[in-house]
Amino acid sequence: MDTGKRYRLLDCGLGRRLESFGALLVDRPAPTADRVRRAPGLWVDAIAYRAGRGWATPDGVRPEPGMVDVALGGVVMVMRLAPGGQVGIFPEHAANASWLRTAIAARVETSPGQEPEVLNLFAHSGLLSLVAASAGARVTHVDASRPAVQAARLNAEHSGLAGHPIRWIVDDALDFVRREGRRGRRYGGLIADPPSYGHGARGARAETRGGWQFETGIDGLLAACRAIAEPDAFWILSTHTPGWPADRLAATLEHRAGARAGGLPGAAGAHAESIELAMEAESGASLHLGVAARLDPRRGESE
After folding, report:
1. Architecture per CATH, 91-299
2. For the segment 87-132, what is each residue's pLDDT rounded down to a tens digit?
3. Would you kindly state where each structural domain of the chain is located, as residue ranges?
4. Which residue in 5, 186, 236, 246 is a FRET match for 41, CA 20 to 30 A apart?
């Protein structure tokens, strides 16, 4: 399903990005946009977010907090001007949509009548959860933020996926994965977009002494996920954490998921591929928004 309005990245620079969601022109922060703007004339009519002042039109008027249905990755995401400068959509993750659909299609084709089980951790507003559901998977969507899960459910409704088998879970990701392990649950696909820092649904975990940190927590998370992964499970891991280039993330996923050492039966010979979550603006400027690594043992060598 794809009935929303078009998303466009028009320009970026000087710590900000200029986007359009249908006819709505939005200027908001983008710390990695550290170069000059290529099309400064496009920015003058945008609704802009400023820290401490919130959203305002060029005339200084606070805009109505309306919603815009946006087509992204083959599903529909609801865009809203949130108080913190967010819009409820992370367009960079659409870079994984086609790969995810292919991975699920391969499993549906070889096991007719069986829906692959896919787990999405730190799932935010649900773009990849909805892509997976629309491709034929049964999805478990986990995020520690109740508002994020509520937004994801709304996106499912607007995408025509409200009746699809999606479990909506508000919980700490690592806590949930460990409980699934004790229950004997197994997943044929695992997706995770952990933050650099954060707390779970019930505050900081004692063992992390202050909450989640990507640098110190990613190995433990992947180990816990490996325990609930099917032998030929596919993986998508992404991060916005400084100091983690794409090749390092891919090497970590490949090692911890068991592919390099043959730790997962059926995974021998599979290698993780890395991609930059970078978007090219229509002005020609480039916006770097993180990195991702993907692994699918059924593909053998990365495509």
Report:
1. 3-Layer(aba) Sandwich (3.40)
2. 999 999 999 999 999 999 999 999 888 899 999 999 999 999 999 9
3. 5-80, 91-299
4. 5
Contact 156, 173 (CB under 8 A): no
Contact 288, 276 (CB under 8 A): yes
Residue 181 is encoded by which pair of tokens? 């392990």
Q: Percent of the chain, pLDDT > 90?
A: 83
Task: Tell me the CA distances in angstroms from 41 to 11, 28, 46, 167, 256, one per residue in order.
Answer: 10, 16, 11, 45, 48
Tokens of 155: 């996106």
User: What is the number of alpha carbons within 13 Å of residue 112 lying toward its C-beta?
Assistant: 0
pTM reported for the whole predicted model: 0.92
Query: Which superfamily is assigned to 5-80 in CATH?
Result: Golgi alpha-mannosidase II (2.60.40.1180)
